[in-house]
């Protein structure tokens, strides 16, 4: 699971920094490429040179280093990693992360991170149990950060209790199961994902479309493939590259999307319909570009398109069927109606008028509504993380259905 992985290790200033040296060595033995980012305080305990020798890579220490490896180092690191690991993570870095503070290279890199983050809190027991630290940890977890709980025992300050950095071998095992959970649990499953918006032509140069970029659906396809699923992506026009290990069918119109979905449907286990589908299409499509006339108005008569998701819901057998609801008002009410009408197992409701949610954003704010009426509200998080949460739920529903 770890071979070939790229991990940015954030090292913050606590006595347990010495254990992070062993951690890097163990990760490398497992085939991980590690790039270390040290805070100023961490450098008081161990020098960057030690981490450079052990990791085989230059150690990043400052936003203002003129010898930086990359032009914009924090963004390059944020995009490079498959995962971020902060070990040891002091109360200070947890507080910064929980509050979006970016005042040094590590905190800035973490704020820009595109991959999942794992933190290993390590500090004095009193600091760890302090309600503020606990609130920060809970907030980070709610935002999708994975927290490896500290070990208990004798601490450097002479007290005893929770707060010790777990042994490096245990952190390596934790990272192994972290990736395994994320990357291997969909092995053997076939996942159909739709993404981007459909376009309905008016004439050879014009169409009726919408603002979907495909980011949400492509993230689901990408994460499902990384977790081992065989993925078919049926996509409307999008500027995004087809993710690695994903088979794609490119379509334009709702009818083309319906056809591609129906062809794949009998054979798939999970369907995630993130596409923004045109509900109507122009009745007459002109062969030639429509010329401007003297009239002030132009009328385009629209016919209703088929509802792809509803069609799939009507012929559902074994499939886990998950839809999206893009709403600008009455989010829960409208989404609940769609779950029932379209015979879904779950719907991902997003208020597309909220900042940081919906069309063409890198983040989303969603609520999961289930067929049995349960509701779960998630905080704002990257679309990649939303994708993984959706896949986690799809797998639970799939396993429940197949264990009966
Ligand atoms: O692509 P991005 O820029 O990242 O934006 C993401 C998104 C906002 C497009 C995505 O998160 C989203 O909300 N997708 C669903 C958009 C939509 O069509 O919502 P809806 O409420 O109109 O439809 C409900 C569900 O029925 C959707 O799963 C849709 O795919 C499906 N549908 C709708 C109409 C139709 N004729 N056929 C369908 O299958």
Describe this structure in words.
With 404 residues, the protein is α/β, with parallel strands linked by helices. Helix content is 35%, strand content 23%. It contains 13 helices and 21 strands. It has helices at 17-29, 48-55, 73-80, 91-98, 105-112, 125-129, 131-142, 168-184, 215-226, 254-264, 308-314, 331-341, 383-403; strands at residues 6-11, 33-38, 83-89, 117-121, 146-147, 151-154, 160-164, 190-195, 200-201, 207-208, 230-235, 246-250, 270-273, 280-282, 302-304, 320-327, 346-351, 363-364, 366-370, 375-377, 381-382. The strands form six sheets. It has an eight-stranded mixed beta sheet, with helices on both faces. The protein has a five-stranded parallel beta sheet with strand order 2-1-3-4-5, sandwiched between helices. Strands 6-7 form a two-stranded antiparallel ribbon. Strand 16, helix 12 (331-341) and strand 17 (346-351) form a beta-alpha-beta unit. The longest helix has 21 residues, at 383-403. It is elongated, with a radius of gyration of 24 Å. It starts with 5 loop residues before the first strand and ends with a helix. The mean pLDDT is 93. The structure holds ligand PMT. The site of ligand PMT has 28 residues, from helix 9, helix 11 and strand 16.
